[in-house]
Amino acid sequence: MTLISIGRLSDETGTKIPTIRYYESIGLLPEPPRTASNRRLYDPHAVARLRFIRHARDLGFEIEAIRDFLGLMDHPGGPCHHAHGLVRQHLEAIDAKIAQLQAMRHAIERVSPNCPYNRVEQCPAIEVLSDHALCPDGCP
Amino acid sequence: MTLISIGRLSDETGTKIPTIRYYESIGLLPEPPRTASNRRLYDPHAVARLRFIRHARDLGFEIEAIRDFLGLMDHPGGPCHHAHGLVRQHLEAIDAKIAQLQAMRHAIERVSPNCPYNRVEQCPAIEVLSDHALCPDGCP
DNA sequence: GCTACAATCTCCAGCGACTAGAGGATCAAG
DNA sequence: CTTGATCCTCTAGTCGCTGGAGATTGTAGC
């Protein structure tokens, strides 16, 4: 069982050191054992857990959702309906975000990249932002 | 020239009142005139400016970018190269976000919506989050 | 006029998810 | 034995809002 320092954990998971300590402070990562000189020591299980957290964060899950996942994983005999619900909800949220971004893209795309004018008053880049009719979805 | 209250401005633009005051505090909206009893009064120009701000925020522009846009619009005779640069940069950022979300979606999609198991230990929803090989792009 | 109640004012504190810095202790290498 | 990297705790800052406390004002009904 190889124990590693916080710096090593940081390198291996691509997580900044303060972020690791932050996850510990909010209870996502358990308090690790320490050396005689008070330095944190992490085992492979902690590495996996942090990697899971980072992966889920990269996928856009919120901390509280991840806390739920970790809670489920800490009770491996239990039912997993809740996990499915979380994932499904998140998929829907992702689809909504993608749709919104694509609408955005189309709205912004209308801006001619080669503006024939050179003055702000006639600039389509400013216009597309000002023109209410070009809103992707119904804005107030 | 119809002057409206902050509540009215809030309703017309779909912006919460504290948000309007926040925009004023950071200098995005100018300090409006007040009634004798110190209440803010907004003219149609302020409504348009706030709508512009909200629209740009909905499109994902950061406050500082919006400040730039507004600065450009306040000098309507000047050149607009900068506005184009901002919009182009933003388009690139949107494309990157869309790509990332789609990668996410594919990763999460692998989770079977009808899990044949009913226990967390065999649940593919948990697995897809744990399995490092399913990462959308090279994670550490 | 009086009483409710809604709207507004200022100021301050908090959210999420980190990130950065100060100031001090400890480790590993030369 | 010194140097520099790494670690510790603690505090405060980031962004873009959001909400509450407590005081004042505007409006409507009686």
Measure the end-to-end span of chain A: 59 Å
Number of domains of chain A: 2
DSSP strand count of chain A: 0
Q: Work out the helicity level of chain A.
A: 55-70%
Main pleated-sheet profile of chain A:
none
Overall CATH class of the largest domain in chain A: Mainly Alpha
Mean pLDDT score of chain A: 78
Strand content of chain A: under 5%
Q: How would you spell out the order of helices and strands of chain A?
A: HHHHHH
Shape, per Cα inertia axes of chain A: flat
> Count of helices of chain A?
6
Organism (chains A, B): Pararhodospirillum oryzae
Keywords (chains A, B): DNA-binding, Transcription, Transcription regulation
Domain HTH merR-type (chains A, B): 3-72
Protein name (chains A, B): MerR family transcriptional regulator
